[in-house]
Amino acid sequence: MKKKLSELPLRSGVGIIVLNKDNKVFVAKRIDNPKNFWQMPQGGVDEGEDFLKAAYRELEEETSIKNVDLIKELDGMITYELPERLLGIIWKGKYRGQKQKWFVMKFVGEDKEINIKTKNPEFLDWKWIELDQITEVVVDFKLHVYKELKEKVKKIIN
Predict the structure, then answer these.
(1) Which of 57, 100, 120, 128 meets the CB 3.0–4.6 Å disulfide criterion with 13?
(2) Dihedral (C-alpha) 147, 61, 8, 5: value to the nearest 10 degrees?
(3) pTM above 0.70?
C-alpha cells in the first residue's frame, strides 16, 4: 500500500548561515533548480551523526569551506514541507520535507577556498549577499524559514 503524503516523515537536516567579514551571507544556486533561486548550504544528517558534525560535513561537501568559526547554534528546529509538485521527486519520495537545525558560522578563509565544483556538485554558482536579501532570492516553499533565520541572525550581528 502506498503511503499517504501526510504519513511521510520529515528528513532530519542542518543548515549553515555563513557570514563573511562584512557579515554578508553565502548563497548558492542549485543545479537542479537553475531559476534565479539561491540558498544557504544545508543537508541531511547521517545515522549516528550529531547536528554540528553534519553541518561541518555538509558545508565542506557542498562548498569546500573549512575555515569557519562557529558563532551560534540557533535554538529550536525549523521545518518546511515540499510543495505537491516536488513530493515523490526529491529524496526519492521518502520524505515530505525537512526539520532543520541551523548554525551561524563566520567564514575566516579567503574566497578562493570556496569551490562548488565538488565530487557531487549541487550548485552552479555562488555569491555573498546582504542578510536582508536572503528572503528575496529563496524558493517560495522555504521563504518562512529564511524570514525566521533573518530575524535570528539580525539579533546576533547587531
Answers:
(1) 100
(2) 70
(3) yes
